Amino acid sequence: MTDPIAVVELIEGFQRSQILFAAVRLGIFDGARPKGSDLERLLEACASLGLLEKRGSEFVNTESADLYLRSASPQSLAGFIKFASSSLYPRWGELDLAVMEGKARANPLSIPGILGRAYRRLTGTVSADVNRDFNAGMHGLGMISSPAVAAAFDLSGFQSVVDLGGSTGHLAMAIGDRYPGMKLTVFELPHVIPVARKFTGERVVLHAGDLFVESLPPSDLYALGKVLHNCNPERCGLLLRKIYEALPKGGALLVVERLLDDDRCGPVHVVASSLNMLVASHGRERTFVEYRDLLAKAGFADVQMRKTGALVDAILARK
User: Fold this and answer.
1) What is the tens place of the pLDDT at every residue in 123-143?
2) CA separation for the pair 187, 303 (Å, rounded)
3) Within 13 Å of residue 12, how many CA atoms lie on the same side as its CB?
4) Whole-prediction pTM value?
5) Is residue 211 helix, strand or coil?
6) Which of 117, 118, 89 is nearest to 105 (CA)?
7) Whose CA is closest to 45, among 76, 10, 20?
8) Is 229 a catalytic residue?
9) What is the phi-psi region of residue 216: left when phi exceeds 0, alpha when psi lies from -120 to 50, beta otherwise?
C-alpha cells in the first residue's frame, strides 16, 4: 500500500461507522426527522455514503437502506447495528489492551448468548435491550446468509434439524424452506425464546435449555451456527463429542462459521471478526483445517466444506 489516501481512509474509517450508528439510533431510516440544529449535516453524510438520496429538500431511503436499515424490513440489520454501537464499538477502543493481555474487554453480563453463559447461569440476568438488539441483529445477518448455507449441501436425507444456539431460527427456517418436510427445532437459552418466537411463529419448535449442560433433543441433523468460534479448543471438544454421541448412526452436524484462509491473513472480514471475538468473548475464527481436526477428534468422519459466497461458510460432518 503506497497510496497515502488509502492510509487516511483507514484512519478515518470509524467516522463512517459512527454516521451509520447515529442515523440508526435516531431512526432516520424509519422516517424519523428529530429536531436538531445540525440534523441536515447527518442526512447529507448518509447521502454521501449512498444510504439516503436527496430529492429537492427531502431525503429518502435508497434501496439498500430500505432493505437493511429500516427496522420493519425482514432483512433489517438495525438490531445488529445498535448492538455493535453500544456493546462492540467501545471495546474496540481497547483492542491494544486485549491483544497484550489476552483478555476480553466486554462485560459478560451485557452480552446475550454463549458469551455470558456462565455468568447468567449464576445470576439469571441479561440486559433486555441488548438481548433484543443482539438477536434481532443475528436474525438480519442470518436472513442474508442462511439461505446460502441451506443450499450448500444436499440435506434431503435427513428427517429433522435441531439448530443448537439457533437464535431466532433463521437457519432452521431457511432449511425448512428448501426441505418442506423436515421437522425444525431451535435449542436456545430461556431468555432468547420469547424473542425467537416473534420471528418463527409456530413454524419452529423452540426448546429452552443450555446446550452445554442439558440433554439435546433427538435429531438426525444438528446445526451449530457461529457457536464454536466463541469457544476454546477444549470447550469445542466437549460440545462436539456431546453432539456426536447424541446423533444416530448416519446422522450429521452442520457447522456454520466464518472461515479463515489457510495462511490466516484473509478474508479481511473474517480476520476482523477474529479480533472482534478477542475483545468480546475470548473466542476466535478458525481455518477449515482447524475445524476439521476438532470434528475428527470428536469422532466425526467425512468432513466436507463448502464456500457459500455469503458472510459464513458451511461444514458438514457425518457420524
Assistant:
1) 334 567 767 777 777 888 888
2) 23
3) 7
4) 0.88
5) coil
6) 89
7) 20
8) yes
9) beta
